[in-house]
Amino acid sequence: MLETTINGIKFKNPVIAASGTFGFGAEFSGYFDVSLLGGIASKGLTLNPREGNAGQRMLETPSGMLNSVGLQNPGLRAFVAEELPRMKKYRTNIIANLSGSCEGDYLAGAEILDDSGIDMIELNISCPNVKSGGMAFGIKADVAAALVSAVRRKVRRKPLMVKLSPNAENIAEMGKACEAAGADSLSLVNTFSGLAINIYTRKPFFENVIAGLSGPAIKPLALRMVRDVYKAVKIPVVGMGGIAGWTDAAEFIMAGASLVQVGTANFTKPDICLDIIRGLERFLAEQNITSPDELRGII
Amino acid sequence: MPYQISKILANAAVSSDVMLMRTAWSEKPKPGQFFMLRMPENSPVLLARPISVHDWENGILSLLYQVVGRGTGAFSRLRPGDKIGLWGPLGNGFNFPDPGKIALVGGGIGIAPLYYLAKNIPAKATAFLGYRSEPFALENFGGFCESVKISSESGFGGHFKGFVTELLEREIGAFKAIYCCGPTPMMKAAAELCGKYGVPAFVSLENKMACGIGACLTCTCANSSGRHARTCLEGPVFRAEEVFFDA
Predict the structure, then answer these.
(1) Are A2 and A273 in contact (CB under 8 A)?
(2) Distance CA B53, CA B202 (A)
(3) Which of A15, A65, B72, B236 holds its CA 20 to 30 A away from the CA of A121?
């Protein structure tokens, strides 16, 4: 009933565990059968291993959390050699989240993933671009489009989904630019740039100063952006940002999302994705709806 | 074990800001492990809180926690019959020491996991328990320990006035290993003492975490391996010499 196909990939339901909140799946397998998910987006992967940021990495905020993990990951080669074979045992789609700090790293990473057993690439353009003084690739549409089109040339076999930053200057224009540059689908939103200050030390709470805000606090903002992008592009949109229950997921579908990703909520209850899948099933049955297609983009 | 919603059997203050919660949990945890606890529904507190195992007996889990913020504040208002959501047991826990005399060194709420350790190790340990002021949750330590030494920074009730590490230093040469949990400065001081006297030390760390199961990567600590270890999964118990206390 919940089956959805985008970019030629069939998802048994529209619920994907979001990158950076679900490890490589195994962390959650003791809590529910992760094969029941529509898909799993891997932890953000970079060409070379990264140890991530020093200092405090997380602060709870009203209905949300700030994180400054800094893309700690084992690197793409270790992912393909060690994590991916384990992930492939789950009967669900594996989406590799590709991150980088310069175009060369993204391109080398894209080539590795294009030759691997993953089902889809999610290109994270929220990373700071070392060459442009640390401003994220995903802020200016022309910068993002140049990266997407370069990555597109390396990605021949796998669908390429581009994950948009809500910090983009204009989210609809950003979506259109990435579509024109060759994206097969768009996922949004990544975390909002936030700040917390320790008033006693008179210093930023995080060593990196800024951190990413996620959780229910961002849901209305994310939902609005998903609708804006859905209306601006023709390619499928994958919605996320503060989804904490099945009603939130249904709202994102009505705002235009073909699939949804659940992030921070995985931390609050390890089997919450299953609650969301079951809730959507019940809702569709109650409403006599045979497919989420009937709800998509109705707002 | 899967996420469970469990009924609160007891939840009462043992000092001005420390509470003891009892709830049902069928599986026996290992000393030094912890649970993630959350208000099961409609809570303004988003994330669960890591709380270490203070005791487990016949399917009853006891959790000793300090009321410090919004999360533990919400727990403190729960009454018997209310529900709590939890998952666990989590973390590596303490490895049982080799035979030989060992010391348990706790500071403040850090005494919580040491009680369950004292109860489950084969030989009786010596407990060194340090408090800011009035001692709490002492009643059963004596039954499972050879002796219990108490310090109080305020000298409350005529107890030794000072830091628990001062008490430890008087006897440290007698121990094969120490097991330590408490505030970072206290664990750092204990680890330095152990380094000085060549006694192996194991410390149980506390860090802010979101998931407790190794996914969020927010509870990491820099250590001597050059890696960022996850407090929730590779820890919370580490060999003291691996830990960078100032990182």
Answers:
(1) no
(2) 17
(3) A65
Domain ranges of chain B: 4-90, 99-198, 205-247
What pLDDT does A132 receive? 74
Cα–Cα distance for residue pair B85/B77, rounded to 1 Å = 15
Chain-chain contact of B215 with A30 (C-beta, under 8 angstroms)? no
pLDDT digits (tens, 9 = 90+) for B106-129: 999 999 999 999 999 988 899 999
B92-96, B110-114, B212-216, B222-226: the lowest-pLDDT one:
B222-226
Out of A23, A32, A52, name the one closest to residue B215 (CB).
A23
Helix (H, G, I), strand (E, B) or coil at B53: strand
Q: Which of residues A260 and B140 earns the better pLDDT score? A: A260
Structure tokens at A208: 């990196």
Provide the pLDDT confidence category of residue B247 given band limits of 50, 70 and 90: low
Q: Say if residues A293 and A251 touch (Cβ distance below 8 Å).
A: no
Check B215 against A52: CB less than 8 A apart.
no
Which of A59, A63, A267 is closest, CB to CB, to B211? A267
Spans of chain A, pLDDT less than 50? none
Above 70 in pLDDT, residue B158? yes
Domain B4-90 fold is Elongation Factor Tu (Ef-tu); domain 3 (2.40.30)
Report phi then psi at A167, rounded to 5: -85, 5
Which residues between 211 and 240 in chain B have a beta carbon less than 8 angstroms from any beta carbon of chain A? 211, 213-220, 222, 226-228
> Strands, DSSP E only, in chain A?
4-6, 9-11, 15-17, 39-41, 58-61, 64-67, 93-98, 120-124, 160-163, 185-188, 192-195, 197-198, 203-204, 210-214, 237-240, 259-262
* Angstrom distance (rounded) from CA A79 to CA A101: 18
**CA-wise closest residue to A24 among A77, A68, A86, A75:** A86
Q: Which pLDDT score is estimated for B100?
A: 83
| Amino acid at the residue A176 | K
The ranges assigned to domains in chain A are 4-53+71-191+215-294
Q: How confident is the model at residue B7 (pLDDT cuts 50, 70, 90)?
A: very high
Annotated catalytic sites of A, by residue?
A: 127
List of chain A residues whose C-beta atoms are within 8 Å of the C-beta of residue B209 = 58
CATH topology of domain A4-53+71-191+215-294: TIM Barrel (3.20.20)
CATH topology of domain B205-247: Dihydroorotate dehydrogenase B (pyrk subunit); domain 3 (2.10.240)
B99-198 is a CATH 3.40.50.80 domain? yes
ipTM of the complex in this document: 0.94
Confidence of residue B97 (pLDDT cuts 50, 70, 90): low
User: Which residues of B, range 154-193, sit inside 8 Å of A by Cβ?
Assistant: none
The pTM (predicted TM-score) of the whole model is 0.95
CA distances from B168 to A66, A69, A139, B165 (A): 39, 37, 56, 5
Query: CB neighbours of A8 closer than 8 A, spacing ≥ 6?
Result: A159
Query: B182: closest CA among B98, B85, B234, B110?
Result: B110
Tokens of A263: 């992030």
